[in-house]
Amino acid sequence: MDKLVTMRWQRAGRLYTRVALGAAFLSAVASRFGLWDRTLDLKHFANFIQYAAEVNSFMPAAAIPFIAWAATAAETSLGILLILGAWPRWVSLASAVLLAMFGTAMAISFGLKSPMDYSVFSASGATVMLALDAFKQGSKQNLEH
Questions:
Q1: How far is residue 32's CA from residue 18's CA, in Å, rounded to a whole number?
Q2: C-alpha pair distances (Å), 22 with each of 11, 90, 128
Q3: pTM for the whole thing?
Q4: What whole-number distance in Å separates Cα of residue 67 and Cα of residue 72?
Q5: Tens of pLDDT, residue by residue, the chain (145 residues)
Q6: CA-based nearest residue to 107, from 98, 123, 120, 126
Q7: If 0-12 CB within 10 Å is exposed, 13-18 middle and 19+ buried, where does residue 145 land?
């Protein structure tokens, strides 16, 4: 009975973590297009490009629009896939890498306090745990077959 209860809590914890992280990615994307302000325009995205330039102050200016659009595409797809629970090993791992890159860029440009205040590394750590758990679950399933 205890093992069954533990398994339910583990499933609930994985679901909560996936949905929370996926929703955070999608919320950030929604802000970039003004959806939280109940508008839909590219003015908000232009502001995001300026923010991306600040975060990536060590990158060439010509690369910033690409970085902003690539981050937006990655956060949109990873956010949806996390919520759906699709390809949990690789989606979680990709999310961890994306968040670690973002946190590192913030630390380089603004100092370590910035990514710490926004829990970027904590979120990256949570996705690492999701990935490790998914790899462990996959190993168990492979052994059973």
A1: 22
A2: 16, 14, 14
A3: 0.90
A4: 8
A5: 688 888 899 999 999 999 999 999 999 999 999 999 998 888 999 999 999 999 999 999 999 999 999 999 999 999 999 999 999 999 999 999 999 999 999 999 999 999 999 999 999 999 999 999 999 988 665 555 4
A6: 120
A7: exposed
Q: How far apart are CA 46 and CA 126, in angstroms?
A: 30
Cα Rg of the chain, angstroms: 17
- Number of neighbours of residue 77 by Cβ within 10 angstroms: 14
Burial 11-48 (b: 16+ CB within 10 A, else e): eeebeebbeebbebbbebbbebbbeeeeeeeeebbeeb
Quickly count: other Cβ atoms within 10 Å of residue 91's Cβ: 25
